[in-house]
Write a structure and sequence with these properties.
- The termini are far apart.
- The protein is built from 4 helices and 4 strands, in the order E-E-E-E-H-H-H-H.
- The strands form 2 sheets. It has a two-stranded antiparallel ribbon with strand order 1-4. Strands 2-3 form a two-stranded antiparallel ribbon.
- The protein is α+β, with helices and mostly antiparallel strands.
- A hairpin with a 2-residue loop joins strand 2 and strand 3 (19-21).
- The protein has 2 domains: 5-41, no CATH class; 61-117, no CATH class.
């Protein structure tokens, strides 16, 4: 039996076996995962006549750190392209998930907010 899929329009770039979907683009994800993705990343509400959705607005402060940490948890720990030699998440991999640019300093600041026993990575 085929897995049930749901079409969503997330506020982040989604990369699947079918390709890369920009923020706001329709993407099919397993129905069982849809609620978690929508809770974590939010859904773009389609506006009439909008051919291309704008990228999500970059948050600041604690909201940015939380968004970066959420994106880190979506990285593939077995994908060497997602992590530096020192084990930190690659900024460009995080940016693809977030839908906006971040700096290495912003990534490091987000990592610093998590105590060493709670680190989600490496």
């Amino acid at each position: 039996m085929a897995e049930k899929m749901k079409t969503v329009h997330l506020n982040v770039t989604v990369v699947t076996g079918d390709g890369e979907f920009k923020p706001g683009s329709p993407v099919k994800i397993p129905e069982k995962d849809a609620a978690d993705y929508l809770k974590r990343h939010g859904e773009v509400v389609a506006s009439k006549g909008a051919a291309e959705k704008s990228a999500p607005k970059k948050p600041t402060g604690d909201a940015l750190a939380k968004a970066i940490l959420a994106a880190m948890s979506d990285l593939d720990k077995d994908n060497e392209d997602h992590f530096t030699a020192s084990g930190k998440p690659v900024v460009s991999a995080l940016e693809k998930l977030l839908g906006y640019d971040i700096t290495a300093a912003e990534r490091d600041a987000a990592l610093a907010t998590v105590s060493s026993d709670q680190k989600p990575l490496v």
